[in-house]
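Q: What changes when fructose -6-phosphate is included in the input?
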Amino acid sequence: MCGIVGYIGEKQAQSFLVNSLRRLEYRGYDSCGIAVADGSIEVYKDAIRVETLERVAPQLGGKVGIGHTRWATCGGPSQVNAHPHCDCTGNIAVVHNGVINNLQGLKQQLISEGHNFVSETDTEVIPHLIEKYYNGNLEKAVEAALRVVEGSYAIVVLMAGEPKLVAARKDSPLIIGIGDRENFIASDVPAILDYTNRVIYLEEGDIGVVTKDSIKIRRDGTEVDREEHKVLWSIEEAQKAGYEHFMLKEIHEQPKVIRDTLGEYTSSAEPVVDLMRLRDEGIESMLILACGTSYHAALVGKYIVEELLRIPMMVEIASEFSYYGQTLARTLAIVITQSGETADSLKAMKRLKEVGCRVVAIANVVGSSASRIADQTIYTKAGPEISVAATKSFTAQLMVLYWLAIGYSKADARRLASMLLELRQLPSKVQQVLDNEDIILQCARYLSKYENVFFIGRGINFPVALEGALKLKEVSYIHAEGYAAGELKHGPFALLGENTPVIAIVARDNTYEAMLSNIKEIKARKSPLIALAEEGDEVIGSLADSVITVPQVDAIFSPVVNAVALQLLAYYTAKERGCPIDFPRNLAKSVTVE
Ligand code: F6R
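A: The predicted holo structure follows.
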């Protein structure tokens, strides 16, 4: 997804802009550009990588500038469609994340008033509108322009001769970083972590006027106060730390993420969410909404909650939620989102609030839009997740769900004590999976030659099969499908054969015998079979072609160790195929469009 940066201070803006854009590359992009004001505005942009921009862009002298990484939506990736975009005079430059819904009407009106457009983008109307409304005061012109714009935006505006940047947001995140005789603007925290950890999160409808010495925030024409926050993520956490890819580093961080996330909640005397109080207040059912990997965590959450709390849990894909007709009053809704910026999840949250639901967000990014909409936010302690493919955030989300359910579990005292013990041991169990890379690497080499793969699981590991398939397809580009093992015979059997490997997750729970039967059926159809099975399983070796062993855990925690093994499998398969693992084609880290 697009990334925004801005700098104003006493140093050359260009090197800050390029460095910060590099920190945002993980969001995914297909073009990039910068604009720097040094008397007049100089723009350099193209459908190129940031490293190329750094190499080929001329040295621009100014101390105030803006930059952007664009992920094409309105108009293909090209030099002319890349941001920043300018008005007719070339004196106003704008970078924009979001979508303008009333583009056609605005553009036609502006053309009839003599404005010339050069790109296919929706963004280009913004500098023209600002030009139209400019009457000697830039922030007032921005306010006037945004009054006629319908849609979502995070924008930063630069104007020749004005020693300031004007930033505004609606439904798309934007932060201001506070420095010493310099200030920064960015769509995302990692962009500015090299320079400062003091930030202000702009709120919906805010307009920030940023000079090198001051930050003023206006809303509806009046100045407002916004709290300064300290970002606890370090720049090291947002760097590769010697790993070849962020994805591998983030997979390896999971023992720590489990410790940190559990530590946060186990140390508190207060329950994470006071379910008993909510029940007394009339909450009758629970619903989890999410997208992608977070949705898979939600599906695992259903098994956890239903087993431990004995209450039904609905789970929905956030983008489908608008089309359902449930009665939702008296529902506790939990929305899981790593970024806290996923448009589909935010839309669902707004609808939930409208119908009177209590909304709890499980998010990883402090200050994200989800946390502003939710009644309560539970933060996962995954640290910055840079790789587009989610790994450690999934595990952290599961930890919150485990803790939430265990706190009110209907399980007997012995089971509870044993679950708590297992939870404490989980980091070392995950470490064992990480230390068992050799067999995973061998399986990855084998898998990398195929183009179609099935992942199967049962019970609480069915969502893990979905997640394993998602990871493999997004980073290795192998077509992969996750299936409930019992469903294969209802259609997909037609695709089985020598060229379609199956990865079976074999848990030692009430699904075990049925899974062994499925494996025999699959082998009878000649599909190569890789099993993910517990240490000590004596039977599986004689049925599967290869076995990846994971440590023994209480079945309820098996999704954690299994998911980590499948993340490594996806990673090494993608590496074997030479894929750009951290930035898979066509994907973005946070999906801020519906
Ligand atoms: C897959 C992946 C995506 C995200 C999805 C939701 O590896 O990263 O499927 O899980 O886009 O993102 P969040 O959790 O930020 O709402």
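Observations recorded in class: The chain has a mean pLDDT of 92.
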